[in-house]
């Protein structure tokens, strides 16, 4: 009976992470928002949340660059990768659009799910719009460091 419970738990964990959730942003171990928040709390890893829409031309252009950037690939295992696409549950919450609803947008969250407002792309109008994969890699490095301010 104990073996069955362990097996079911392992199957549940494997189902929560799903590389098919890439939706144009690569074959990473993607999570939906709810499962990603739970995994981050359990693992202690920070979250990288990618927000995009199927109809967005810039999202379609940026997805392949994101997917092929070696720096993102190298760092991804240190993150819980959350892919928020179209109307995924919870992704439209105002806390995940701190400076507007533009897309694509990449946010970094603590393992407790708090937004790291100190990690930005550099454009004061679109703070979380990363136009190049190398900039995302650099932001990932920053997200692995402790927050400089009270979140």
What structural class do the secondary elements suggest?
alpha/beta
The rounded Rg comes to: 15 Å
Main β-sheet, spatial strand arrangement: 1-3-2-4
Q: Count of helices?
A: 5
Helix share, percent? 25-40%
Kindly report the average pLDDT value: 87
Low-confidence stretches: 1-15
Strands, total number: 4
Shape: globular
Write down the secondary-structure element order: HEHEHHEEH
Give the N-to-C terminal Cα separation. 44 Å
Please, could you describe this protein's structure?
With 151 residues, the protein is of the alpha/beta class. It has helices at 2-16, 33-43, 57-68, 70-75, 133-143; strands at 30-31, 47-52, 80-85, 105-109. The protein has a 4-stranded mixed sheet. The longest helix is centred in the first third of the chain and has 15 residues, at 2-16. The model is unreliable at 1-15 (pLDDT under 50).
Summarize the structure.
The chain has helices at residues 2-16, 33-43, 57-68, 70-75, 133-143; strands at residues 30-31, 47-52, 80-85, 105-109. With 151 residues, it is an alpha/beta fold.
List the helices and strands and how they pair.
Blueprint: H1 2-16, E1 30-31, H2 33-43, E2 47-52, H3 57-68, H4 70-75, E3 80-85, E4 105-109, H5 133-143
Parallel strand pairs: 1-3, 2-3
Antiparallel strand pairs: 2-4
């Amino acid at each position: 009976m104990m073996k069955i419970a362990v097996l079911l738990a392992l199957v549940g964990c494997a189902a929560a992470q799903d590389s098919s959730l890439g939706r144009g942003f690569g074959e990473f171990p993607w999570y939906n928002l709810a499962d990603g928040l739970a995994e981050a709390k359990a693992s202690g890893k920070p979250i990288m949340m990618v927000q995009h829409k199927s109809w967005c031309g810039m999202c379609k252009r940026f997805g392949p660059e994101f997917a092929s950037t070696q720096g993102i690939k190298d760092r991804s295992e240190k993150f819980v990768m959350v892919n928020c696409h179209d109307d995924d549950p919870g992704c439209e919450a105002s806390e995940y659009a701190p400076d507007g609803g533009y897309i694509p947008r990449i946010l970094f969250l603590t393992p407790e799910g708090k937004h790291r407002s100190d990690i930005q792309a550099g454009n004061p109008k679109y703070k979380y719009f990363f136009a190049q994969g190398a900039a995302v890699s650099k932001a990932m490095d920053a997200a692995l460091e402790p927050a400089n301010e009270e979140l």
